[in-house]
Amino acid sequence: MFKRKLGYTDLELTVTGIGTWAIGGSDWRYGWGPQDDELSIRAIRRGLDLGINWIDTAPAYGNGHSEQIVGRAIKGLSPRPLIATKCGLAGDGKGGVRGYLKKNGILSEIEFSLKNLDIERIDILQIHWPIPDGDIEEAWRAIQIAIRQGKVRYAGVSNFNTAQLDRINKIAPAASLQPPYSMLKRDIEIDILPYCSAKNIGVIVYSPMQKGLLSGKMTANRVNSFPDNDHRKTDPLFIPPLLNKNLCLASSLADFAAKRGKTAGQAAIAWVLRKPEVTSAIAGIRNESQAEEIAKAGSWSLSEEELLEIDGIIKDNTF
Ligand SMILES: NC(=O)c1ccc[n+]([C@@H]2O[C@H](COP(=O)([O-])OP(=O)(O)OC[C@H]3O[C@@H](n4cnc5c(N)ncnc54)[C@H](OP(=O)(O)O)[C@@H]3O)[C@@H](O)[C@H]2O)c1
């Protein structure tokens, strides 16, 4: 599988990373419905066996549950995969999450993550959301303390805009940014990608299949039968009229991919990787066969002709 260097760091990431939001379980407002832990562990190990060398997680995913599952999946592996986790988003006591970026909270959350993951050092620690905006500098300074203590190797951020990146870069340069990017969410092409390229910030994009919508396997029936604890039930992209448009896009993408012996999900991932500024795409998995599919997507380099064809599909199916 192809690898790309993350910004100014010495980390070489495979172009797909394993996303573990859904394996955090359903016991909170942003869950993905029921998920079997043993299946999650097998999925992660399958992705690693096939060559993926890094995993994205967060303490917010099921209040530590996703990190604990990752910890179990990587236990005893040598070399162990690179681990990217996050900080600054905690349970609000009512099943939801809230942003907090105060120094003591960040430092104790790092300890929580290290314990959950059962590792000595986090390879990439990212501020999950810039909320509250006024505290991003305080959180960034706290993370620099953890780097000096040897508990964190490199620090990045997620969901930050360029003005917020400017503010933290004055304190210490960000190694990475984690923004959303898919055929249905292309905002980063305007300013984020050029900015990160100019500043040598690695870009690890999330939700390349738009939470499964572009996998080619999502159907209106499946969406209608989402359990109440699958947060996608209330995501506007999964609700008509947008749902119908999005499923048409996925279906055209599936036809395009099938002619090449691939799937729509693999095309969606390969498409975000056409941008050289994108270091890696994080794809969420819930079972071994999904792990196999996303691992293969990492070695599909779309040709100019294929990209033109996909452009046409996107134009015909978005508004
Ligand atoms: N920093 C942030 O704020 C942020 C936000 C979102 C995500 N992330 C990270 O990015 C990762 C990826 O994003 P994501 O999970 O939202 O979206 P995604 O990667 O676009 O979609 C993942 C979902 O698609 C479905 N899927 C995966 N492979 C498939 C396959 N081969 N065939 C059919 N369906 C497949 C699975 O859901 P079903 O099987 O249920 O359909 C899976 O959970 C997350 O896991 C998380 O680590 C970070």
Q: What is the structure about, briefly put?
A:
The chain is of the alpha/beta class and 319 residues long.
Question: Mind explaining what this structure looks like?
Answer:
- By secondary structure, this protein is of the alpha/beta class.
- It is globular.
- An eight-stranded parallel β-barrel has the order 3-4-5-8-9-10-11-12, surrounded by five helices. It has a two-stranded antiparallel sheet with strand order 1-2. The protein has a two-stranded antiparallel ribbon with strand order 6-7.
- Helix content is 38%, strand content 17%.
- The longest helix has 17 residues, at 242-258.
- The protein contains eleven helices and twelve strands.
- Residues 19-22, 32, 56, 128, 158-159, 178, 206-212, 215, 217, 265, 282-286, 290, 293-294 line the site of NADP nicotinamide-adenine-dinucleotide phosphate.
